[in-house]
Fold this protein.
Amino acid sequence: MKKEIEVPITRDGLWLDSDITYAQVPGWLGNSTRDLKLSVIRHFPNDDENTKYPVIFWFAGGGWMDVDHNIHLPNLVDLARKGYVIVSVEYRDSNKINFPGQLNDAKAAIRYMRKNACKFQIDPERFVAMGESAGGHLASMLGVTNDIDKFDVGENLEFMSDIQVSIPLYGVVDPLTAKNGSLSNDFDFVYRNLLGAEPEDNKDLDAAANPLTYINDKTVPFLIFHGDKDVVVPIEDGEKLYDTLIENNAKADFYKIKGAGHMDIRYWQPEIVDIISDFLEKYL
């Protein structure tokens, strides 16, 4: 069979730049240097100099104990098809550094991408932080700390680490209430590892790692997702985040996902992608 067809161009092609070093940090017991990586799903280059894509920074979960920044790249393609550049970020786990080291890493990745905005044809004024579970905690922390310089550590400090929208998926909010409110005791240790102390024994450390501490008039719009069957991170914490944002006149939407547990496949369905896309179109 021999055929001739005409194929219209209806969407961009996508390229993957994997495992780009965005920062170097102390490694083995402080005696070596460790590279931190990020991967970028980007659009085929466009000759139009005015073409600039908004960016979604993705932070995978793992209880701050293990981080694979590439694990969700196949799922994130759906958002790239919606017209976004995706930047999936490695951050140090709690075996390597306590909080706020993870937030320091996230902000370093954002500064790196602002520095390289032209290279990736991205719009530095339209940055989104999105993450799941422990990564959702990072997304929330980024959304409430635009005006706090102490979390900017490392290179490229001439560039801002500000974001414009935060999207936590079943994200940890307050480490103490997450530990106490969880229906499972299997993950209680992760909060001690993150803070370097039990959250109930050191309220100052707990407050420093709690996004609710920082909500102010510079807090960005939040799109929050949480499943009503989550036994790891209590949905009440997500609801508390939403309520506190609204009380402080921040923009926020909250979606309770019926039947969804922790790290549930429901979060990667087209309906969720459409909700995210609509929210970003409204606030970016």
